[in-house]
Amino acid sequence: MKMFQKEYSSKRGVLFTIAYSLVMAAGIAAIVFNPTNVVLYIAVACCLFGLIFHLTAKTRVRKSIIKTLSKMNPEEYCCTIYKKRIEIETIIKPKEEEISEKKESEEKSENSENSDTQEEELKEPTPIKSVFKFKDDLLNFSEDKISLYLVYNRQQIYCFPKRCLSEEVQEKVREHLKKMTSEEII
């Protein structure tokens, strides 16, 4: 997540930091020339608050996302990389609470006529498949010490942890994704 924030929100962040700093510096300079103007003190205080709020935003966003993700159902991903496309299947597993609730309701309804429909509900969910074409979709590849990242349209991040891939597979995936997401192909 830090990699994504650093790569995609750093330009805007620098602009906001510069803007708040310039307005605050102008306000301080105006206070030096006119120390009795209360509006200038309020403006400098607002700029200082905005600057601090902006500089701590990345940390707050990361904490919020991690908190939200921890409440979600566990998911498994299966990735298949072809020469001109990549397919990622998302398999959403039910939470333990949901499984126990379905089992309880199944036990209650075993004697009733609806037991056939209950069995259908307990089946494995169908995976959700996402297909990305290298030349047609806006894909970017990046990596850090612990993961390989595929970023789709600056909104979705697919993370391939290096600990889950052998050195040989890492190298093949890295080379293929670098080659297929480079500017020369598009």
- Calculate Rg over CA atoms: 25 Å
Counted by DSSP, the helix tally is: 7
Question: Oligomeric form of this entry?
Answer: single chain
Category from helices, strands and their pairing: alpha+beta
- State the strand order across the main sheet: 1-2-3
Count the strands? Answer: 6
Shape: flat
Roughly what is the average pLDDT, rounded to an integer? Answer: 78
What is the share of helical residues? 40-55%
Instruction: Give the N-terminus to C-terminus distance in angstroms.
Output: 26 Å
Low-confidence stretches: none
User: Could you state the order of secondary-structure elements as H and E?
Assistant: HHHHEEHHEEEEH
Residue share in β-strands: 15-25%
The biggest beta sheet, please?
3 strands, antiparallel
Give your account of this protein's structure.
This protein is of the alpha+beta class and 186 residues long. It has a domain at 2-70. Helix content is 53%, strand content 20%. It contains seven helices and six strands. The strands form two sheets. A three-stranded antiparallel β-sheet has the order 1-2-3, with no helix packed on it. Strands 4-5-6 form a three-stranded antiparallel β-sheet, covered by helices on one side. It is flat and about 80 Å long. The mean pLDDT is 78.
